């Protein structure tokens, strides 16, 4: 990163090409690769929202966030200095358009939305939602965490969004767990281009340059030029699959989610039974009436070697299980997982004790969650008895 740009032309060319590819995939006009996570991408986008309104001489303080949004959305808005307003979902799990219209006004800076939403449902009224926000002078922000459901099918740009971030460490194969490293590029429509972070990777004739000559830019948001290794991996993935392969990714993700949904719905409550996209939610309310919580079932899954799916999120579904099989699983692995989930549902009815006392096969059994939350032990300590010095021996 400290080398002169003329000595790293290959690296800059890769970054430039990735920006161009992601702009096409998202339907945006320009992309920055600097943000190193989805949440940092959200914050970057919101800082551009703020700069845009301030450049127009407006100070807008309100960001609208649906109750089915990712938890980072209201957090990022708060960090960026905005007040968040929650928009409730309707009975179909989608944005309540009437409620949205009540809250959109001249103080609305942006609406943050992911489509499909966290319930795995596509916002069918997205064109009207965009029109409502735009007519009030607000911007539409796309949380791209669920982009693997729309690749090659549609784009945030065609839905009416002005800003989008993507999770390269999710949709484009980078490692998602273990704390990263991540990459959360942000794309914008042309009117927001002056506010993008600098330096920007640009092409000047047959050379690639780093350009910081953008006086309206929000500045640098990441040291150097992003998490380069993850960007290389994402670029390789995109070029390997091509347009047809990316479309097959979303088709596979949607097919797998709906297959699992249909297999599991008879055994759990399904608050939204319509066709989903890449993920779906179930509710453990039926099991809770029998004295077993979703948390208990998640711990029981550990006995079968499965990392439990996300639980108790989104918050607007009681005893929620959010399941996202992804496009890479085979029918055999999905059937095996479904069989275990069905077995656990039957255990709740016939032998709830085995679920309530799970996990049984892990190195560490069930923890005292209350004590762990209130009195966490954050470092290893040897037992006192283990560190006693031996009695001296006379020779």
Question: How would you characterize the overall build of this protein?
Answer:
Strands 1-7-6-5-4-2-3 form a seven-stranded mixed β-sheet, with helices on both faces. The chain starts with 8 loop residues before the first helix and ends in a 21-residue tail after the last helix. By secondary structure, it is α/β, with parallel strands linked by helices. It is globular, with a radius of gyration of 24 Å. Mean pLDDT is 93; it is low at 385-390. The protein has helices at 9-26, 38-55, 72-79, 97-103, 126-135, 156-159, 228-264, 285-288, 294-302, 331-350, 352-356, 369-374; strands at residues 30-32, 62-66, 83-87, 108-113, 139-144, 163-166, 186-188, 200-204, 207-211, 280-283, 310-311, 320-323. Helix 2 packs across helix 3 and helix 7 packs across helix 10. Helix content is 37%, strand content 13%. The chain folds into two domains: 5-242, Aspartate Aminotransferase, domain 2 (3-Layer(aba) Sandwich), CATH 3.40.640; 249-365, Aspartate Aminotransferase, domain 1. The longest helix is centred in the middle third of the chain and has 37 residues, at 228-264. The protein is built from twelve helices and twelve strands.
């Amino acid at each position: 990163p400290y080398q002169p740009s003329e000595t790293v032309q290959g690296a800059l060319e890769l970054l430039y090409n990735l920006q161009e590819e992601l702009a096409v995939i998202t339907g945006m006009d320009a992309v920055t690769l600097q943000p190193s996570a989805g949440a940092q991408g959200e914050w970057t986008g919101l800082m551009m929202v703020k700069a845009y309104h301030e450049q127009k001489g407006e100070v807008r303080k309100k960001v609208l966030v649906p109750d089915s949004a990712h938890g980072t959305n209201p957090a990022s808005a708060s960090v960026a200095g905005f007040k968040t307003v929650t928009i409730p979902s309707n009975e179909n799990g989608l944005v309540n358009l009437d409620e949205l219209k009540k809250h959109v006004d001249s103080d609305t800076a942006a609406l943050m939305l992911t489509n499909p939403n966290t319930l795995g449902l596509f916002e069918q009224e997205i064109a009207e939602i965009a029109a409502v926000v735009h007519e009030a002078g607000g911007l539409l922000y796309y949380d791209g965490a669920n982009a693997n459901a729309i690749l090659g099918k549609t784009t945030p740009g065609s839905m009416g969004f002005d800003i989008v971030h993507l999770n390269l460490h999710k949709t484009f194969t980078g490692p998602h767990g273990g704390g990263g490293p991540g990459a959360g590029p942000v794309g914008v429509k042309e009117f927001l281009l002056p506010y993008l972070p600098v330096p920007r990777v640009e092409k000047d004739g047959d050379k690639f340059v780093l350009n910081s000559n953008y006086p309206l830019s929000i500045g640098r948001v990441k040291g150097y030029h992003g998490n380069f290794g993850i960007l290389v991996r994402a670029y390789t993935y995109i070029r390997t699959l091509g347009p047809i392969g990316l479309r097959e990714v979303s088709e596979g993700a949607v097919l797998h989610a709906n297959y699992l949904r249909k297999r599991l719905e008879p055994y759990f409550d399904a608050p939204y039974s319509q066709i989903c996209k890449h993920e779906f939610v179930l509710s453990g309310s039926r099991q809770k009436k029998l004295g077993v919580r979703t948390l208990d079932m998640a711990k029981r899954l550990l006995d079968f070697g499965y990392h439990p799916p996300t639980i108790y999120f989104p918050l607007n579904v009681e005893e929620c299980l959010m399941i996202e099989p992804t496009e890479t699983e085979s029918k055999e692995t999905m059937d095996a997982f479904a069989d275990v989930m069905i077995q656990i549902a039957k255990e709740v009815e016939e032998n709830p004790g085995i679920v309530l006392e799970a996990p049984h096969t892990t190195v560490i059994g069930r923890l005292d969650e209350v004590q762990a939350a209130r009195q966490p032990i954050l470092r290893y300590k040897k037992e006192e008895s283990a560190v006693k010095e031996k009695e001296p021996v006379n020779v």
